[in-house]
Design brief:
Strand content of chain A: over 45%
Shape of chain A: globular
Mean pLDDT of chain B: 88
Low-confidence stretches of chain A: none
Radius of gyration of chain B: 13 Å
Strand content of chain B: over 45%
Shape of chain B: globular
Distance between the termini of chain B: 40 Å
Order of helices and strands of chain A: EEEEEEEEEEE
Largest sheet of chain A: 7 strands, mixed
Oligomer: heterodimer
Helix content of chain A: under 10%
Helix content of chain B: under 10%
Largest interface: A-B, 25 and 22 residues
Number of helices of chain A: 0
Mean pLDDT of chain A: 93
Number of strands of chain A: 11
Radius of gyration of chain A: 13 Å
Structural class of chain A: mainly beta
Distance between the termini of chain A: 37 Å
């Protein structure tokens, strides 16, 4: 079946603009994760959902970052008042359920803040 | 917290040779480890995993070795091919939770 998809693939925003990044996980996957990957670095955990419940948001760098998954499937990562340091690739991953199951990653959204 | 690091940032190998990528982790409570491959413009792709009750696991052309005593794991790729060129990340998890801590990554370059 289809893998994890993310949209848009590329986003250019002027500093101060709000952006919304979408993630469509694999159908039926309970767990959903967002990561931020700076150039040349490994992905850094942002937040984790189990169904519609956001169980961990400890990785969100500031209160400008907000994630939701209202119906337990599609998720949106919103960044308000974007700053240049927000420029990165934002990766979404899903897995069947919790407990060390394999995470399947989407291709990411490359955000560039100018 | 967990700290996961890789010994070498770049590894160049001749096509057909074996590759070994090393990784150290800091949290002795880590009980599940994953190797990911990331090609340019794509998300990380699962390669192989190993649980802490094992010290070796083999897949197709890949082997992961785990040494819990020194908190070290390695990824061995047999008969490296050009398609293996990518950045490889190790990741460690603990407590049955899926918060994945990635290392910085090793770039594998395969020389034809």
């Amino acid at each position: 079946g289809a893998g994890v998809s993310q949209s848009p693939r590329y986003k250019v925003a002027k500093r101060g603009q709000d952006v919304a990044l979408r993630c469509d996980p694999i159908s039926g996957h309970v767990s959903l994760f967002w990561y931020q990957q700076a150039l040349g670095q490994g992905p850094e955990f942002l937040t984790y959902f189990q169904n519609e419940a956001q169980l961990d948001k400890s990785g969100l760098p500031s209160d400008r970052f907000f994630a939701e998954r209202p119906e337990g499937s599609v998720s949106t990562l919103k960044i308000q008042r974007t700053q240049q340091e927000d420029s990165a690739v934002y990766l979404c991953a899903s897995s069947i359920q919790g407990g060390n199951y394999e995470q399947y990653f989407g291709p990411g959204t490359r955000l560039t803040v100018t | 917290g967990e700290s996961v690091g890789l010994h070498l940032p770049t590894l160049s190998v001749q096509e057909g040779d074996n590759s070994i990528i090393n990784c150290a982790y800091s949290n002795s409570a880590s009980d599940y480890f994953i190797w990911y491959k990331q090609e340019s413009g794509k998300g990380p792709q699962f390669i192989i995993d190993i649980r802490s009750n094992m010290d070796k696991r083999q897949g197709q052309r890949v082997t992961v070795l785990l040494n819990k005593t020194v908190k070290h794991l390695s990824l061995q790729i047999a008969a490296t091919q050009p398609g293996d060129s990518a950045v490889y990340f190790c990741a460690a998890l603990s407590g049955g939770y899926q918060k994945v801590t990635f290392g910085t990554g090793t770039k594998l370059q395969v020389i034809p």
